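Issue: copy button drops trailing tokens. Both records pasted manually instead:
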Amino acid sequence: MNSPAPLPLFKSRVVPVIVVTDPAQAVPMAEALLAGGVDVMEITLRSAAGLAAIEAVARAVPEMQVGAGTVTRASEVAQVLAAGARFGLSPGSTPGLLAAVLASGLPFVPGVASPSEAMAARDAGFTLMKCFPAAQLGGVEVLKAWGGPLPDLRFCPTGGVSLANMGSFLSLPNVAMVGGSWLTPAAAVKAGDWAQITRLAREATDAVAALQASR
């Protein structure tokens, strides 16, 4: 097994998964999330505006832990680092991608969809992984099952996670945080309704706090 890979530094247990179509949306969105208690945002590379949006947040809102999502190629690692991403995430984990990430020193959350993929990522040095697509793989039950043979690993389930079911995921000892798109609805972003995004972020933050207090 390689040396442990560095971990992201954000505190929020809810990671907004965001597709930005206009880089001008990124900074007010980051500020709205912070106002709601969420100090992390995953800006995906699913649109051409992704890198510019990451760069805008990194420059203007340094207290936001901005990460690059949907990193699927080794060549993208240098690009997201240059844009100022504090960490990266991927829906999968190929040997080439993981090698590039480890060489760069970028904190990274590789994606896995089976115990074998999780074991391979662990062998490469990763202990925090994205479980994707979580709902389609079996949701809470599959993560509960993985916890038996892989007790040393932690996961961020993404895909089908919502405010309604995130508590079930976060209650599992092997779930470190959850990822979801519900905090930044496309309609609210398009309308510039940052107050709604702050409200949704605060709702999620309060729900996490209530869950932790009940333990």
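Record 2 (pasted manually too):
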Amino acid sequence: MSRMGTVICAAVAIAAGAYWLSLPSSTGSLPASPLIGSADAQQAEVDTSTIVEMVQGAEDAPVEVIEYASYTCPHCARFHEEGYKQLKADFIDTGKVRFIYREVYFDRYGLWASMVARCAGPEKFFGITDLMFKSQSEWARAGGPAEIADELRKIGRVAGIDNDKLDACLGDATMAQTLVAWYQEHATRDEINSTPSFMINGKKVENQPYADFKALIEAELAN
């Protein structure tokens, strides 16, 4: 999903307002909003070291690929249905690429999806991410906040997470605030202003056909 604003603008949009507690939905209370006071977001020092990087592939792979993606981005969903599967088969599973997935939060629903995807830890993260993208058109258009939260809980339950655990994850305001700070920290440093975007061995790469993406990786492997 192309984002014409800067990362700072996106972060400020997320930061406007305050965390709010919501009305109950059919399966429990809504998750906290990612909206945090803009002054607090800019001034408070949030310890982002608690956020776990979601990684696939060999630790000593010669090429590192970082993907920045939003769960509500249609272009990201398309990449995961096509390019990512080829990338995994060609390079990740063969030990040539260490792949890191970092979430981008342009809206609260993307943050909620991230909190569900991370709820069961790294072991289930990529499987849940696959479910999120496959059903994106359903849950992201389910209606208002209550309906979208319920659809995200359904995905979590399909992955084997029980309702109590899901409600605890979605209601963790500290985690939500930390994830937003973590996103802003990395995306600002890497100048991410659209999704999906990639870093290949530290060089920023925009979304492109897989054949071109593959050629860039092969060039890195040849160095």
